[in-house]
């Protein structure tokens, strides 16, 4: 799998130290639903569970030009019966922020999910203070669908989450796909 500037590769056990490093970076962690620093040991235990989980796919993001891993992405809550999933992304390398890799990756995940995996709907949730993620998801093809008030307790207080989603027909029409 690849987009214009990114290679998507399966998450492997040898990728876990880098994932832990990124998730333990407070700047990165503050944009996500991660509350506590993670250890490599607990991340390895997590990996052993999720590698067998048919309701998710975890990928590493590699910059084509440099071969450098810059983040991770994939799908969670895959519902094969109802043909829907929740794509996710984290750009762990903060030097890669602001280069629109996130928009490219989310757009690719939406396109691939709809037109290769056969999903009918994809959706996601964004912490209300993460304005960059909101812009990224809307540019990539999501539409804002709602607001969940005081939905999660993150970083010491309750936050709203913005719900985004899109159907295959709306996405394909907007981007002149198939």
Q: Can you describe what's shown?
A:
The protein has 178 residues and is of the alpha+beta class. Helices cover 31% and strands 34% of the residues. It is built from six helices and seven strands, in the order βαααβββαβαββα. It has helices at 16-23, 26-29, 40-50, 101-115, 131-140, 168-174; strands spanning 6-10, 57-63, 69-79, 84-91, 121-127, 143-154, 157-167. The chain has a seven-stranded mixed sheet with strand order 1-2-3-4-5-7-6. A hairpin with a 4-residue loop joins strand 3 (69-79) and strand 4 (84-91). Helix 4 packs across helix 5. It is globular. The mean pLDDT is 94.
Question: What are the SSEs and their pairings?
Answer:
Layout: E1 6-10, H1 16-23, H2 26-29, H3 40-50, E2 57-63, E3 69-79, E4 84-91, H4 101-115, E5 121-127, H5 131-140, E6 143-154, E7 157-167, H6 168-174
Parallel strand pairs: 4-5
Antiparallel strand pairs: 1-2, 2-3, 3-4, 5-7, 6-7
Helix pairs in contact: 4-5
Low-confidence regions: none
| Gyration radius from CA atoms, angstroms | 16 Å
The 3D shape can be described as globular
By oligomeric state, this entry counts as single chain
The DSSP helix count reads 6
What structural class results from the helix and strand content? Answer: alpha+beta
Distance N to C terminus: 19 Å
Side-by-side strand order of the widest sheet? 1-2-3-4-5-7-6
Q: Give the overall pLDDT as a whole number.
A: 94
Total DSSP E strands: 7
What share of residues is helical? 25-40%
Strand content: 25-35%
Order of helices and strands: EHHHEEEHEHEEH
């Amino acid at each position: 799998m690849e987009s214009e500037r990114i290679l998507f590769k399966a998450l492997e056990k040898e990728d876990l130290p880098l994932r832990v490093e990124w998730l333990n970076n407070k700047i990165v962690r503050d944009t996500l639903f991660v509350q506590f620093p993670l250890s490599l040991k607990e991340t390895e235990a997590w990996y052993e569970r999720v590698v067998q989980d048919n309701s998710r796919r975890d990928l590493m993001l590699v910059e084509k030009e440099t071969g450098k891993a810059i983040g991770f992405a994939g799908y969670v809550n895959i519902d094969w019966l109802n043909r829907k999933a929740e794509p996710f992304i984290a750009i762990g390398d903060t030097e890669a922020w602001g280069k629109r890799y996130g928009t490219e990756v989310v757009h690719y995940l939406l396109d691939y999910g709809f037109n290769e995996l056969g999903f009918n709907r994809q959706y996601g949730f964004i912490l209300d203070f993460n304005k960059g993620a909101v812009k990224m998801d809307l540019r990539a093809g999501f539409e804002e669908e709602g607001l969940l008030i005081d939905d999660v307790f993150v970083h010491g207080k309750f936050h709203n989450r913005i719900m985004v989603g899109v159907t295959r027909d709306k996405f394909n029409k907007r981007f002149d796909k198939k």
